[in-house]
Write a structure and sequence with these properties.
Elements lengths: L1 H8 L12 H4 L16 E6 L5 E5 L1 H6 L8 E4 L6 H16 L7 E7 L5 H7 L2 E4 L20 H20 L5 H16 L8 H9 L3 H6 L5 H7 L1 H12 L20 E5 L7 H19 L9 E6 L9 H16 L3 E6 L12 H13 L3 E4 L4 H11 L3 H6 L7 E6 L2 E7 L6 H4 L10
Parallel strand pairs: 3-8, 3-9, 4-6, 4-7, 5-6, 7-8
Antiparallel strand pairs: 1-2, 1-11, 9-10, 10-11
Helix pairs in contact: 6-7, 6-11, 6-12, 6-13, 7-8, 8-11, 12-13, 13-14
The site of adenosine-5'-diphosphate has 16 residues, from helix 4.
Length: 440
Amino acid sequence: MTSLLSRWRTPGLRLPRHRATNAHVSALYPFHAGVGLGPRGIYVGEDVSAGGTAWCYDPFQAYTDGLITSPNILVLGMVGSGKSSAVKTLLYRSIGLLGSPGGRPRWCAVLDPKGEYGPLADALGLARIRLHPGGQTRLNPLDAGPAMTDVDELRTRRSQMVAALAASVLHRELTPLEDAALGWTVDAVTSERSGPEPTLADVVDLLVNPTDDMTRRAQAETARDLARDIQNVRHALGKLLDGQLRGMFDGHSTERLDWTGRGVVIDLSAVHQDTAALTAVMIAATGWLQSLLAAPESDHVPRRVQVLEEIWALLGSERVAKYYQSCQKLARSYGVANISVAHRIADLRAQSDDGTSAAKVSMGILADTQTQILFRQSSDQVSEATEMLGLSTYQAQLLPQLVRGRALWRVGDRTAVVQHRIGSAEWAICDTDQRLNLDR
Ligand SMILES: Nc1ncnc2c1ncn2[C@@H]1O[C@H](COP(=O)(O)OP(=O)(O)O)[C@@H](O)[C@H]1O
Ligand SMILES: [Mg+2]
């Protein structure tokens, strides 16, 4: 009986006996643990590269601590590797917890091409906007927004958006005249500040009937000559007014948002299957979102996070990629944290004939993204990822071996391999597999 009790009380770490010389044993270091980025921020998961310690992160905190100089985040990984779950739980925890009363308010805008953020919207009480062709909900991508003060910035923002929209529908770069004419049109509708907000229909009207000023600036004989020379851009924008995408962006917004509440999810799943349409819709929807993001954080304007899923749709051509880059820059200048989600590193390479300038756009985007969350990549992506992200040999070898939910985090010059943890209450917002898994 005694011997049974004493055996019971013996702490049981049953490992095979190991013998080694002093020369080898002196190299053992059993206290391997890291502090990660410190305890401030939200709990993400276990830092498996530092003995399973907690890995906490918050882009605003990391920025304040000087670990990064830009709060932009890139989430990269193959389908099913855990990207969206990581983003949803980051939002759930940071908006729900750090943005709760007593803390600084937080607000998020999610562009959701697959229509999978509905449960998160319900859990956080986010506004939901579902856009579909011919529907009742409409967003005006030319909206100035609740805090617009700088007309020059508004003009630039609108010109870049309209030009990207035209180029994406035309599937080609704009001619210098087309580009300039769109700029003049935006000038004309933006200077008429006394009237109501301009719409894309106003822009198309001016392309059909150019003003005297536009005709003079184009050095065209008559307004009709100019209209003929720019008819292709007019047809391209016209597709959004009366083509298959009608009803989504062709009039005044039916939705009014400001920063009260916790944010908005824009569901674009109705056009997800149509690649060309998705690009145009994402340009227009980000155009509308800019109106909410182009304002500095203040007592009335909360800390904001913008999530763009499926960013390949905004990187298909150099013009659109530059527009996406300008959105990122604008948001960044107002302290917004942009989270961009991509499948493959190749998605970041804008598809352009001119490889050099295309590469410059993507390198610029990457240079401005100092938090990279790299989930599993297929082996054929590794060499390109290594080159574009400047990975070490160890990091490159790791990428194809990462299991679901595990990612290589790079925050400024800190790195860690983190097993992302999903809480029991969070499965309802994460499970895109839509199947019951009793192991959880
Ligand atoms: N950290 C994790 N731990 C366990 N399972 C996870 C984790 N992250 C994701 N999953 C599971 O994997 C599925 C796919 O994840 P998801 O985030 O949608 O992948 P992706 O966006 O990369 O395609 C989810 O439905 C969830 O069931
Ligand atoms: Mg996903």
